[in-house]
Amino acid sequence: MSTGLENLRIDNEEVVNDEDRSTFEQSQEIEREDSVSAEREKEECFSPSSLPEEDEVIKDAWCDPENPRRCTFQDISAAAYMIKSGIQRTPCTKSLGLSKITGMEIFFKKEFLQITGSFKERGARYTLMMLSPEQKKRGVVAASAGNHALALAYHGTDLGVPVTVVMPISAPLMKVESCKGQGATVIVKGAHLGEAKEIALKLGKENGYQYINGYDHPHIIAGQGTMGLELVEQVTDIDAVLIPVGGGGLIAGTALAIKSLYPNIQIIGVEAESCSSFSAAQDADHPIYTSPSSTLADGLSVPMVGINAFATARGLVNKMVTISEHWIAITILRLVEMEKAVVEGAGAAALAAVLAGQLPELQGKRVIIALTGGNIDTTILGRCLDRGLAADGRLVRFGVTVSDRPGGIAELTKLLASMGASLKDIFHERAWLKSDIFSVHVKCVIETKDRDHADKVYQALCARYSHIIWGPSQVDL
Predict the structure, then answer these.
(1) Among 81, 86, 367, 408, fewest CB within 10 Å belongs to which?
(2) How many CB atoms lie within 10 A of CB 274?
(3) Among 324, 343, 412, which residue's Cα sits nearest to residue 381?
(4) Which tens digits make up the pLDDT trace of 91-109?
Protein backbone atom coordinates (compact mmCIF):
# COMPACT_ATOMS: atom_id res chain seq x y z
CA MET A 1 0.00 0.00 0.00
CA SER A 2 1.54 3.24 -1.04
CA THR A 3 1.79 6.11 1.32
CA GLY A 4 1.57 9.79 0.51
CA LEU A 5 5.33 10.05 0.98
CA GLU A 6 5.96 7.40 -1.64
CA ASN A 7 3.57 9.09 -4.03
CA LEU A 8 5.38 12.34 -3.44
CA ARG A 9 8.71 10.63 -4.13
CA ILE A 10 7.42 9.11 -7.35
CA ASP A 11 5.97 12.42 -8.46
CA ASN A 12 9.23 14.18 -7.69
CA GLU A 13 11.22 11.58 -9.65
CA GLU A 14 8.90 12.05 -12.64
CA VAL A 15 9.33 15.80 -12.38
CA VAL A 16 13.09 15.42 -12.16
CA ASN A 17 13.10 13.00 -15.08
CA ASP A 18 11.00 15.44 -17.14
CA GLU A 19 13.40 18.27 -16.28
CA ASP A 20 16.42 16.11 -17.18
CA ARG A 21 14.89 15.18 -20.50
CA SER A 22 14.04 18.82 -21.18
CA THR A 23 17.56 19.95 -20.33
CA PHE A 24 19.08 17.17 -22.45
CA GLU A 25 16.87 18.01 -25.43
CA GLN A 26 17.77 21.71 -25.12
CA SER A 27 21.49 20.91 -25.07
CA GLN A 28 21.10 18.68 -28.12
CA GLU A 29 19.25 21.44 -29.94
CA ILE A 30 22.00 23.94 -29.06
CA GLU A 31 24.65 21.53 -30.34
CA ARG A 32 22.73 21.06 -33.60
CA GLU A 33 22.42 24.83 -34.04
CA ASP A 34 26.12 25.28 -33.33
CA SER A 35 26.95 22.58 -35.85
CA VAL A 36 24.75 24.16 -38.54
CA SER A 37 26.24 27.58 -37.79
CA ALA A 38 29.75 26.18 -38.07
CA GLU A 39 28.94 24.56 -41.41
CA ARG A 40 27.50 27.84 -42.69
CA GLU A 41 30.59 29.72 -41.59
CA LYS A 42 32.77 27.12 -43.29
CA GLU A 43 30.79 27.42 -46.53
CA GLU A 44 30.94 31.21 -46.40
CA CYS A 45 34.70 31.11 -45.86
CA PHE A 46 35.14 29.15 -49.09
CA SER A 47 32.40 30.84 -51.08
CA PRO A 48 33.84 32.62 -54.21
CA SER A 49 31.87 35.75 -53.36
CA SER A 50 33.68 36.06 -50.04
CA LEU A 51 37.20 35.84 -51.45
CA PRO A 52 39.30 39.02 -51.43
CA GLU A 53 38.72 41.10 -54.54
CA GLU A 54 42.31 40.86 -55.63
CA ASP A 55 41.94 37.06 -55.91
CA GLU A 56 38.90 37.24 -58.16
CA VAL A 57 39.41 36.36 -61.82
CA ILE A 58 37.44 38.91 -63.82
CA LYS A 59 36.81 37.91 -67.42
CA ASP A 60 36.11 40.04 -70.46
CA ALA A 61 32.57 39.09 -71.54
CA TRP A 62 33.32 40.14 -75.14
CA CYS A 63 36.27 37.74 -75.47
CA ASP A 64 35.12 34.29 -74.37
CA PRO A 65 37.46 31.41 -75.38
CA GLU A 66 34.51 29.01 -75.33
CA ASN A 67 32.38 31.18 -77.61
CA PRO A 68 34.51 33.25 -80.01
CA ARG A 69 32.68 35.95 -81.96
CA ARG A 70 33.45 36.07 -85.66
CA CYS A 71 33.30 39.40 -87.41
CA THR A 72 31.34 39.61 -90.69
CA PHE A 73 31.76 41.67 -93.83
CA GLN A 74 28.50 43.43 -92.98
CA ASP A 75 30.03 44.51 -89.64
CA ILE A 76 32.98 46.08 -91.47
CA SER A 77 30.74 47.82 -93.99
CA ALA A 78 28.64 49.28 -91.17
CA ALA A 79 31.79 50.44 -89.37
CA ALA A 80 33.10 52.15 -92.53
CA TYR A 81 29.87 54.12 -92.89
CA MET A 82 29.73 55.15 -89.24
CA ILE A 83 33.33 56.31 -88.78
CA LYS A 84 34.01 57.91 -92.16
CA SER A 85 33.51 61.45 -90.87
CA GLY A 86 35.70 60.95 -87.81
CA ILE A 87 38.94 59.42 -89.11
CA GLN A 88 41.48 60.19 -91.81
CA ARG A 89 41.26 58.45 -95.17
CA THR A 90 45.01 57.86 -95.27
CA PRO A 91 46.90 57.88 -98.58
CA CYS A 92 48.13 54.71 -100.27
CA THR A 93 50.99 55.84 -102.51
CA LYS A 94 53.63 54.15 -104.61
CA SER A 95 57.25 54.19 -103.44
CA LEU A 96 59.52 54.66 -106.45
CA GLY A 97 62.78 54.19 -104.55
CA LEU A 98 61.86 51.05 -102.65
CA SER A 99 60.07 49.58 -105.66
CA LYS A 100 63.34 49.85 -107.58
CA ILE A 101 65.39 48.31 -104.76
CA THR A 102 63.04 45.38 -104.11
CA GLY A 103 61.94 44.57 -107.65
CA MET A 104 58.29 44.88 -106.62
CA GLU A 105 55.69 47.55 -107.23
CA ILE A 106 55.29 48.74 -103.64
CA PHE A 107 52.49 50.92 -102.31
CA PHE A 108 52.40 52.18 -98.71
CA LYS A 109 49.12 52.47 -96.81
CA LYS A 110 50.15 55.28 -94.46
CA GLU A 111 48.14 54.70 -91.31
CA PHE A 112 50.76 56.56 -89.27
CA LEU A 113 49.12 59.73 -90.63
CA GLN A 114 46.01 59.26 -88.51
CA ILE A 115 45.60 62.08 -85.96
CA THR A 116 46.93 60.02 -83.04
CA GLY A 117 49.50 58.27 -85.22
CA SER A 118 48.10 54.77 -85.81
CA PHE A 119 45.37 52.60 -87.32
CA LYS A 120 43.93 52.03 -83.84
CA GLU A 121 41.62 55.01 -84.32
CA ARG A 122 39.37 53.03 -86.65
CA GLY A 123 38.35 50.41 -84.14
CA ALA A 124 38.34 52.79 -81.19
CA ARG A 125 35.87 55.20 -82.76
CA TYR A 126 33.51 52.48 -83.99
CA THR A 127 33.48 50.74 -80.61
CA LEU A 128 32.71 53.97 -78.76
CA MET A 129 29.93 54.80 -81.22
CA MET A 130 28.32 51.39 -80.67
CA LEU A 131 27.97 51.84 -76.90
CA SER A 132 24.50 52.19 -75.41
CA PRO A 133 23.51 55.70 -74.23
CA GLU A 134 23.80 54.56 -70.60
CA GLN A 135 27.26 53.08 -71.18
CA LYS A 136 28.41 56.24 -72.93
CA LYS A 137 27.59 58.16 -69.76
CA ARG A 138 29.38 55.70 -67.48
CA GLY A 139 32.44 55.45 -69.70
CA VAL A 140 34.98 52.85 -70.78
CA VAL A 141 38.30 51.49 -69.53
CA ALA A 142 41.22 49.90 -71.35
CA ALA A 143 44.73 48.64 -70.75
CA SER A 144 47.32 49.83 -73.24
CA ALA A 145 50.95 50.87 -73.48
CA GLY A 146 50.34 53.35 -76.26
CA ASN A 147 48.37 53.47 -79.51
CA HIS A 148 45.06 51.98 -78.33
CA ALA A 149 45.09 54.30 -75.32
CA LEU A 150 45.76 57.35 -77.51
CA ALA A 151 43.01 56.43 -79.95
CA LEU A 152 40.41 55.88 -77.21
CA ALA A 153 41.43 59.09 -75.42
CA TYR A 154 41.10 61.23 -78.55
CA HIS A 155 37.83 59.79 -79.83
CA GLY A 156 36.37 59.49 -76.32
CA THR A 157 36.79 63.24 -75.91
CA ASP A 158 35.37 63.87 -79.39
CA LEU A 159 32.29 61.71 -78.71
CA GLY A 160 31.80 62.75 -75.10
CA VAL A 161 32.59 59.33 -73.61
CA PRO A 162 34.71 59.27 -70.40
CA VAL A 163 37.82 57.17 -70.93
CA THR A 164 40.06 55.62 -68.27
CA VAL A 165 43.33 54.05 -69.37
CA VAL A 166 45.59 51.81 -67.31
CA MET A 167 49.15 51.93 -68.63
CA PRO A 168 52.01 49.72 -67.34
CA ILE A 169 54.99 51.41 -65.72
CA SER A 170 57.02 50.48 -68.81
CA ALA A 171 54.85 52.68 -71.05
CA PRO A 172 56.80 55.51 -72.75
CA LEU A 173 56.44 58.79 -70.88
CA MET A 174 55.60 60.59 -74.12
CA LYS A 175 52.55 58.36 -74.68
CA VAL A 176 51.43 58.69 -71.05
CA GLU A 177 51.49 62.47 -71.31
CA SER A 178 49.81 62.40 -74.73
CA CYS A 179 46.91 60.36 -73.31
CA LYS A 180 46.48 62.86 -70.48
CA GLY A 181 46.57 65.68 -72.99
CA GLN A 182 43.76 64.04 -74.97
CA GLY A 183 41.54 64.15 -71.88
CA ALA A 184 41.71 60.57 -70.61
CA THR A 185 42.07 59.56 -66.98
CA VAL A 186 45.42 57.81 -66.95
CA ILE A 187 46.50 55.32 -64.27
CA VAL A 188 50.11 54.15 -64.50
CA LYS A 189 50.17 50.81 -62.69
CA GLY A 190 51.29 47.25 -63.35
CA ALA A 191 54.68 45.78 -64.18
CA HIS A 192 53.51 44.75 -67.65
CA LEU A 193 50.45 44.89 -69.89
CA GLY A 194 48.98 41.72 -68.38
CA GLU A 195 48.87 43.28 -64.91
CA ALA A 196 47.50 46.53 -66.35
CA LYS A 197 44.67 44.55 -67.96
CA GLU A 198 43.74 42.89 -64.64
CA ILE A 199 43.61 46.30 -62.98
CA ALA A 200 41.49 47.72 -65.82
CA LEU A 201 39.00 44.83 -65.62
CA LYS A 202 38.67 45.34 -61.86
CA LEU A 203 38.07 49.08 -62.34
CA GLY A 204 35.45 48.31 -64.94
CA LYS A 205 33.57 45.98 -62.61
CA GLU A 206 33.71 48.38 -59.67
CA ASN A 207 32.67 51.50 -61.61
CA GLY A 208 30.45 50.15 -64.35
CA TYR A 209 32.94 50.94 -67.13
CA GLN A 210 32.99 48.75 -70.21
CA TYR A 211 36.39 47.17 -70.79
CA ILE A 212 37.57 47.50 -74.41
CA ASN A 213 40.21 45.05 -75.61
CA GLY A 214 42.50 46.82 -78.06
CA TYR A 215 42.71 43.98 -80.60
CA ASP A 216 40.01 41.41 -79.82
CA HIS A 217 36.74 43.26 -79.17
CA PRO A 218 34.42 42.44 -82.12
CA HIS A 219 33.77 46.12 -82.85
CA ILE A 220 37.50 46.84 -82.75
CA ILE A 221 38.09 44.13 -85.37
CA ALA A 222 35.30 45.50 -87.56
CA GLY A 223 36.71 49.02 -87.29
CA GLN A 224 40.23 47.92 -88.22
CA GLY A 225 38.82 46.10 -91.24
CA THR A 226 37.82 49.43 -92.78
CA MET A 227 41.46 49.88 -93.77
CA GLY A 228 41.00 46.95 -96.16
CA LEU A 229 37.98 48.55 -97.80
CA GLU A 230 39.94 51.76 -98.34
CA LEU A 231 43.05 50.28 -99.89
CA VAL A 232 41.20 48.19 -102.50
CA GLU A 233 39.53 51.42 -103.65
CA GLN A 234 42.87 53.25 -103.81
CA VAL A 235 44.97 50.69 -105.71
CA THR A 236 43.88 48.39 -108.53
CA ASP A 237 45.16 44.94 -109.53
CA ILE A 238 46.62 44.15 -106.11
CA ASP A 239 48.58 40.90 -105.80
CA ALA A 240 49.36 40.91 -102.08
CA VAL A 241 48.83 42.90 -98.89
CA LEU A 242 51.39 42.76 -96.06
CA ILE A 243 50.19 43.45 -92.53
CA PRO A 244 52.07 43.54 -89.20
CA VAL A 245 50.55 41.15 -86.64
CA GLY A 246 50.42 41.48 -82.86
CA GLY A 247 47.09 40.62 -81.27
CA GLY A 248 45.58 39.89 -84.68
CA GLY A 249 42.76 42.45 -84.82
CA LEU A 250 44.08 44.35 -87.84
CA ILE A 251 44.91 41.33 -89.99
CA ALA A 252 41.59 39.67 -89.09
CA GLY A 253 39.43 42.63 -90.07
CA THR A 254 41.51 43.61 -93.11
CA ALA A 255 41.77 40.06 -94.45
CA LEU A 256 38.00 39.58 -94.12
CA ALA A 257 37.28 42.85 -95.94
CA ILE A 258 39.70 42.15 -98.80
CA LYS A 259 38.97 38.45 -99.25
CA SER A 260 35.21 39.12 -99.31
CA LEU A 261 35.73 41.36 -102.35
CA TYR A 262 38.88 39.93 -103.97
CA PRO A 263 39.53 36.32 -102.88
CA ASN A 264 42.69 36.02 -105.02
CA ILE A 265 44.63 38.74 -103.20
CA GLN A 266 47.25 37.21 -100.91
CA ILE A 267 47.19 38.25 -97.26
CA ILE A 268 50.60 37.94 -95.61
CA GLY A 269 51.17 38.59 -91.92
CA VAL A 270 54.48 39.64 -90.40
CA GLU A 271 55.44 39.08 -86.76
CA ALA A 272 58.48 39.91 -84.65
CA GLU A 273 60.73 36.90 -83.99
CA SER A 274 60.58 37.73 -80.29
CA CYS A 275 56.82 37.07 -80.06
CA SER A 276 55.21 35.08 -82.88
CA SER A 277 51.89 34.36 -81.15
CA PHE A 278 49.77 34.20 -84.35
CA SER A 279 52.06 31.62 -85.94
CA ALA A 280 51.98 29.61 -82.72
CA ALA A 281 48.18 29.76 -82.73
CA GLN A 282 48.08 28.52 -86.33
CA ASP A 283 50.31 25.58 -85.43
CA ALA A 284 48.15 24.69 -82.41
CA ASP A 285 44.88 25.54 -84.21
CA HIS A 286 43.89 27.77 -81.27
CA PRO A 287 45.38 30.76 -79.44
CA ILE A 288 48.16 29.77 -77.04
CA TYR A 289 50.47 31.70 -74.75
CA THR A 290 53.85 32.66 -76.22
CA SER A 291 56.51 34.12 -73.97
CA PRO A 292 57.49 37.55 -75.33
CA SER A 293 60.86 39.26 -75.10
CA SER A 294 62.06 42.80 -75.64
CA THR A 295 61.72 44.06 -79.20
CA LEU A 296 61.88 47.24 -81.26
CA ALA A 297 58.39 46.30 -82.45
CA ASP A 298 56.85 46.66 -79.00
CA GLY A 299 53.37 47.06 -80.48
CA LEU A 300 53.58 43.48 -81.81
CA SER A 301 54.68 41.98 -78.49
CA VAL A 302 51.35 40.32 -77.61
CA PRO A 303 51.81 36.98 -75.85
CA MET A 304 48.51 35.46 -77.02
CA VAL A 305 46.57 36.35 -80.15
CA GLY A 306 42.95 37.41 -79.64
CA ILE A 307 40.23 34.77 -79.42
CA ASN A 308 37.82 36.58 -81.74
CA ALA A 309 40.61 37.81 -84.01
CA PHE A 310 41.95 34.31 -84.58
CA ALA A 311 38.47 32.91 -85.21
CA THR A 312 37.79 35.67 -87.77
CA ALA A 313 41.17 35.36 -89.51
CA ARG A 314 41.14 31.55 -89.67
CA GLY A 315 41.53 30.46 -93.30
CA LEU A 316 42.01 34.00 -94.62
CA VAL A 317 45.77 34.46 -94.07
CA ASN A 318 47.89 32.94 -96.84
CA LYS A 319 51.27 33.15 -95.15
CA MET A 320 52.99 34.22 -91.94
CA VAL A 321 56.64 35.28 -91.66
CA THR A 322 58.76 36.45 -88.73
CA ILE A 323 61.35 39.21 -88.82
CA SER A 324 64.48 39.90 -86.77
CA GLU A 325 65.42 43.02 -84.79
CA HIS A 326 68.28 43.57 -87.23
CA TRP A 327 65.91 44.11 -90.16
CA ILE A 328 63.39 46.15 -88.20
CA ALA A 329 66.15 48.64 -87.34
CA ILE A 330 67.34 48.82 -90.95
CA THR A 331 63.76 49.34 -92.16
CA ILE A 332 63.14 52.26 -89.79
CA LEU A 333 66.30 53.84 -91.21
CA ARG A 334 65.25 53.17 -94.83
CA LEU A 335 61.84 54.78 -94.27
CA VAL A 336 63.40 57.89 -92.75
CA GLU A 337 65.96 58.24 -95.53
CA MET A 338 63.91 57.21 -98.57
CA GLU A 339 60.29 57.99 -97.66
CA LYS A 340 60.85 60.82 -95.17
CA ALA A 341 58.53 58.85 -92.88
CA VAL A 342 59.00 58.33 -89.14
CA VAL A 343 57.49 54.91 -88.41
CA GLU A 344 57.67 52.86 -85.20
CA GLY A 345 59.12 49.35 -85.11
CA ALA A 346 55.76 47.59 -85.24
CA GLY A 347 54.65 49.77 -88.14
CA ALA A 348 57.80 48.98 -90.13
CA ALA A 349 57.69 45.18 -89.66
CA ALA A 350 55.87 44.36 -92.90
CA LEU A 351 58.38 46.24 -95.06
CA ALA A 352 61.20 44.61 -93.08
CA ALA A 353 60.10 41.19 -94.35
CA VAL A 354 60.47 42.42 -97.94
CA LEU A 355 63.87 44.06 -97.39
CA ALA A 356 65.13 40.89 -95.65
CA GLY A 357 64.34 38.89 -98.79
CA GLN A 358 61.78 36.65 -97.08
CA LEU A 359 59.15 37.04 -99.81
CA PRO A 360 60.91 36.38 -103.13
CA GLU A 361 57.67 35.10 -104.66
CA LEU A 362 56.41 38.71 -104.75
CA GLN A 363 59.04 39.85 -107.26
CA GLY A 364 57.33 41.81 -110.04
CA LYS A 365 54.03 41.91 -108.12
CA ARG A 366 51.87 44.82 -106.99
CA VAL A 367 52.17 44.83 -103.21
CA ILE A 368 50.53 47.01 -100.57
CA ILE A 369 52.41 47.35 -97.29
CA ALA A 370 50.64 48.76 -94.23
CA LEU A 371 52.74 51.27 -92.28
CA THR A 372 50.55 51.02 -89.22
CA GLY A 373 51.97 53.50 -86.71
CA GLY A 374 54.42 56.33 -86.13
CA ASN A 375 54.42 56.77 -82.36
CA ILE A 376 58.07 56.27 -81.51
CA ASP A 377 59.96 58.07 -78.75
CA THR A 378 62.69 60.38 -80.01
CA THR A 379 65.26 58.63 -77.83
CA ILE A 380 64.22 55.22 -79.19
CA LEU A 381 64.26 56.63 -82.72
CA GLY A 382 67.86 57.72 -82.23
CA ARG A 383 68.83 54.25 -81.05
CA CYS A 384 66.99 52.65 -83.95
CA LEU A 385 68.78 54.84 -86.46
CA ASP A 386 72.15 53.99 -84.91
CA ARG A 387 71.30 50.29 -84.94
CA GLY A 388 70.17 50.58 -88.53
CA LEU A 389 73.41 52.29 -89.54
CA ALA A 390 75.43 49.62 -87.73
CA ALA A 391 73.46 46.76 -89.28
CA ASP A 392 73.88 48.47 -92.66
CA GLY A 393 77.68 48.57 -92.24
CA ARG A 394 77.65 52.38 -92.12
CA LEU A 395 78.45 52.73 -88.43
CA VAL A 396 81.55 50.75 -87.47
CA ARG A 397 83.43 50.14 -84.22
CA PHE A 398 87.06 49.07 -84.19
CA GLY A 399 90.12 49.08 -81.96
CA VAL A 400 93.68 49.83 -83.04
CA THR A 401 97.01 50.09 -81.19
CA VAL A 402 98.96 53.25 -82.08
CA SER A 403 102.02 55.05 -80.79
CA ASP A 404 101.48 56.99 -77.56
CA ARG A 405 104.03 59.57 -78.60
CA PRO A 406 102.99 63.01 -79.92
CA GLY A 407 101.32 62.71 -83.32
CA GLY A 408 100.31 59.05 -82.93
CA ILE A 409 96.58 59.65 -82.81
CA ALA A 410 96.81 62.54 -85.26
CA GLU A 411 98.23 60.10 -87.79
CA LEU A 412 95.26 57.76 -87.24
CA THR A 413 92.68 60.52 -87.68
CA LYS A 414 94.48 61.79 -90.77
CA LEU A 415 94.27 58.31 -92.30
CA LEU A 416 90.54 58.11 -91.56
CA ALA A 417 89.97 61.54 -93.07
CA SER A 418 91.88 60.60 -96.23
CA MET A 419 89.59 57.58 -96.62
CA GLY A 420 86.47 59.74 -96.30
CA ALA A 421 85.36 58.19 -93.00
CA SER A 422 83.74 60.39 -90.35
CA LEU A 423 85.01 59.89 -86.79
CA LYS A 424 82.02 59.77 -84.40
CA ASP A 425 83.72 58.73 -81.15
CA ILE A 426 87.21 57.93 -79.83
CA PHE A 427 88.48 56.48 -76.52
CA HIS A 428 92.03 55.84 -75.25
CA GLU A 429 92.98 52.71 -73.27
CA ARG A 430 96.40 52.54 -71.58
CA ALA A 431 96.21 50.72 -68.24
CA TRP A 432 95.21 47.26 -69.49
CA LEU A 433 97.37 47.24 -72.62
CA LYS A 434 99.92 44.38 -72.46
CA SER A 435 102.10 45.42 -75.38
CA ASP A 436 104.64 48.25 -75.72
CA ILE A 437 104.47 50.77 -72.84
CA PHE A 438 104.77 53.54 -75.40
CA SER A 439 101.60 52.43 -77.19
CA VAL A 440 97.93 53.20 -76.60
CA HIS A 441 94.87 51.21 -77.63
CA VAL A 442 92.32 53.47 -79.30
CA LYS A 443 88.67 52.51 -79.68
CA CYS A 444 86.87 54.33 -82.47
CA VAL A 445 83.38 54.60 -83.92
CA ILE A 446 83.30 55.81 -87.52
CA GLU A 447 80.59 56.45 -90.08
CA THR A 448 81.12 55.20 -93.64
CA LYS A 449 79.17 55.43 -96.90
CA ASP A 450 78.32 51.73 -97.05
CA ARG A 451 79.72 48.29 -96.28
CA ASP A 452 82.15 48.38 -99.24
CA HIS A 453 83.52 51.71 -98.04
CA ALA A 454 83.95 50.24 -94.54
CA ASP A 455 85.92 47.31 -96.00
CA LYS A 456 88.28 49.74 -97.77
CA VAL A 457 88.86 51.62 -94.51
CA TYR A 458 89.67 48.31 -92.81
CA GLN A 459 92.19 47.40 -95.52
CA ALA A 460 93.88 50.80 -95.20
CA LEU A 461 94.17 50.38 -91.42
CA CYS A 462 95.63 46.88 -91.83
CA ALA A 463 98.24 48.23 -94.20
CA ARG A 464 99.36 50.81 -91.61
CA TYR A 465 98.88 49.12 -88.20
CA SER A 466 99.70 45.62 -86.99
CA HIS A 467 97.15 45.30 -84.17
CA ILE A 468 93.55 45.93 -85.25
CA ILE A 469 90.33 44.53 -83.81
CA TRP A 470 87.43 45.12 -86.22
CA GLY A 471 83.80 44.84 -85.17
CA PRO A 472 81.75 45.49 -82.02
CA SER A 473 82.05 42.10 -80.31
CA GLN A 474 85.82 42.25 -79.88
CA VAL A 475 86.49 45.89 -79.07
CA ASP A 476 85.81 45.70 -75.32
CA LEU A 477 89.18 44.41 -74.16
Answers:
(1) 81
(2) 21
(3) 343
(4) 999 999 999 999 999 999 9
